[in-house]
Design a protein that fits this description.
The protein is mainly alpha-helical. The chain has one domain. Helices cover 68% and strands 4% of the residues. It contains 3 helices and 2 strands; from the N terminus they run ααββα. Strands 1-2 form a two-stranded antiparallel sheet. Strand 1 and strand 2 form a beta hairpin. Helix 1 crosses helix 2 and helix 2 packs antiparallel against helix 3. The longest helix has 22 residues.
Length: 93
Amino acid sequence: MTIGPALPLALLVGLANTGLYVLIRGDAGGRLPVTYVAASLGAWAGAAIAGRLGVSLLAIGDFSIVAASVMAWIGIGIVAILATLAPQSGKAG
């Protein structure tokens, strides 16, 4: 049994994009693990979609880095939007 390169590459692309997001934003507001998971799953989905469509912009084998990064940022954006819409915990006073 062999493990294809899609999962490790998705984890690396997710990590790189999460790191870039934290660098740009300054922090992740306590939701860094959720942001990383969303970015990694988005990268994995992006590579799978690009593979099905035959898109191979900046690819490592069958893994399209550009499509994976785009979907990773969509995953990060979804987490950021949901965090903005969620009720804030804290004392009002």
